[in-house]
Recover the amino acids of this structure.
């Protein structure tokens, strides 16, 4: 098999898909037509191609680390594409139903809310009863409209993993992505156990204040979008400061956005544009696009910084690197750089320097800490759940629903709905990327603070240190990157210390 030709075609496919994604979600084109792109490149993802790449990967691992690593990444790309290809009919039916479903909220208002906007409306809705009514309508639509399709998608994924020769989808992901999911689950379970006592004192007061008197004991999932929206912080996050503060952040790190020819920034308002900022790496590093809806509020700052972190990572990748290291590899790496940037929106030094905001009473910091803890515990529970879903011998449908609601509910201490047990699954155990990225980001941030001080984000030298890491794309895994940088092991003790829950612990020393 001609691997050089395969790489070229894979890169062309990635660019075409990126173009299509950008055009649709930037509001430049109504259609989102990925089937012709898959059809043009179907040879990349056939079962035969997967089998031949697997032979290559087995042979390459004997030829040395670099060849083995690259072959594994290509195999992962081919298998992911194969799984995408056998599900295009279900995916497009799901997208159509989601886009076409309008919720009729039974609260006497007669309001009709598009399914996809339900959580945005909940986030902006101060009236709790209305949030709950929207949730009920959303769950009913999920159950009747989407779950039958999701169930078929899951069944097909499981069956295809076995047809391709793996014991389970979990085994497939572990081998191709290099995850050790048991080890990760032990670390995240330990994190959940270690934060059990601190949860209520840390989260309860924030819930009560942010949600106008709702007590932690009464918290429901329908309240979470409103809790995360944190409307009372809007005054601190003025929309007029959104782009200038981002530009100043880049400038502080020695990056001049005006001369970044390979970054395309789109801040125009247009109908059909995604309400969330997003990044598309069409060609790394030559063509990276950042699309921003110019609105405001804390969420938009976080979203722009997060996507901006992805963009700067991709835009600084060494163009001479292999396709695999520029476009594929461990996504915990790019997510960690994105988290490093979006965490700035809760950094008191950044808030003061870039937005002129003083968090005198600690309201912003307390909210950020509570949100972080909820997210980490939610994702730890999600990992445990997804391991069950993709076990060799998974529980039956009823048991899965039960398991989902129990695990997620215990993590966030809310009555968690059963209906989203299939919608809440991410392909490729992406949950493991997020969890490892949070850990890596915490280590990275501690490292940057130690070397460059609390205002590391305003030091050109810190920017140089980051650019040195960015050049390497995603050649290394998160564990390897950290090992090379500081010699530390990627662990969750650093997150405990960062949350102030292990006051004596030195984040570098915790194992
Ligand atoms: Zn991201």
């Amino acid at each position: 098999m001609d691997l050089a030709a395969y790489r070229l075609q894979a890169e062309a496919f990635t660019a075409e898909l990126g173009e299509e994604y950008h055009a649709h979600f930037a509001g430049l084109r109504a259609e989102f037509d990925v089937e012709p792109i898959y059809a043009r490149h179907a040879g990349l993802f056939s079962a035969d191609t997967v089998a031949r790449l697997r032979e290559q990967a087995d042979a390459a691992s004997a030829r040395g680390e670099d060849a083995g690593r690259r072959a594994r990444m290509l195999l992962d790309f081919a298998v992911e594409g194969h799984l995408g290809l056998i599900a295009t009919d279900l995916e497009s039916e799901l997208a159509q139903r989601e886009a076409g479903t309008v919720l009729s909220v039974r609260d006497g208002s007669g309001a009709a809310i598009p399914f996809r906007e339900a959580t945005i409306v909940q986030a902006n809705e101060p009236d709790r009863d209305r949030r709950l009514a929207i949730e009920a309508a959303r769950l009913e639509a999920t159950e009747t409209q989407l779950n039958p399709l999701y169930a078929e998608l899951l069944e097909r994924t499981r069956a295809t993993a076995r047809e391709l020769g793996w014991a389970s989808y979990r085994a497939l992901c572990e081998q191709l992505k290099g995850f050790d999911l048991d080890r990760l689950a032990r670390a995240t379970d330990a994190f959940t156990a270690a934060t059990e006592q601190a949860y209520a004192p840390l989260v309860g007061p924030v819930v009560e204040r942010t949600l106008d008197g709702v007590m932690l004991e009464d918290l429901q999932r329908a309240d979470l979008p409103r809790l995360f929206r944190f409307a009372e912080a809007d005054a601190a996050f003025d929309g007029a400061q959104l782009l200038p503060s981002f530009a100043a952040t880049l400038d502080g790190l020695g990056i001049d956005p005006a001369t970044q020819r390979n970054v395309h920034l789109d801040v125009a308002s247009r109908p059909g544009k995604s309400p969330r900022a997003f990044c598309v790496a069409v060609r790394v590093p030559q063509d990276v696009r950042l699309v921003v809806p110019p609105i405001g509020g804390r969420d938009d700052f976080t979203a722009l910084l997060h996507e901006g972190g992805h963009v700067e990572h991709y835009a600084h990748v060494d163009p001479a690197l292999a396709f695999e290291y520029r476009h594929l590899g461990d996504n915990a790496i790019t997510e960690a750089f994105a988290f490093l940037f979006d965490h700035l929106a809760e950094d008191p030094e950044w808030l003061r320097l870039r937005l002129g905001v003083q968090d005198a009473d600690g309201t912003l910091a307390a909210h950020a800490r509570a949100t972080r803890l909820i997210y980490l515990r939610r994702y730890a529970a999600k990992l445990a759940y997804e391991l069950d879903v993709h076990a060799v011998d998974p529980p039956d449908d009823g048991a899965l629903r039960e398991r989902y609601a129990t695990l997620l509910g215990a993590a966030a201490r809310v009555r968690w709905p059963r209906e989203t047990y299939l919608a809440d699954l991410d392909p490729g155990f992406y949950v493991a990327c997020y969890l490892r990225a949070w850990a890596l980001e915490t280590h990275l941030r501690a490292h940057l603070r130690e070397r460059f001080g609390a205002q590391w984000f305003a030091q050109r030298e810190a920017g140089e240190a980051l650019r040195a890491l960015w050049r390497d794309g995603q050649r290394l895994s998160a564990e390897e990157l950290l090992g090379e940088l500081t010699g530390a092991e990627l662990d969750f003790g650093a997150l405990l210390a960062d949350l102030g829950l292990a006051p004596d612990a030195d984040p570098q020393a915790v194992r």
Observations:
- The longest strand covers residues 278-283.
- The mean pLDDT is 93.
- The first helix runs from residue 3 to 25.
- Residues 306, 310, 335, 338 surround zinc ion (CB under 6 Å).
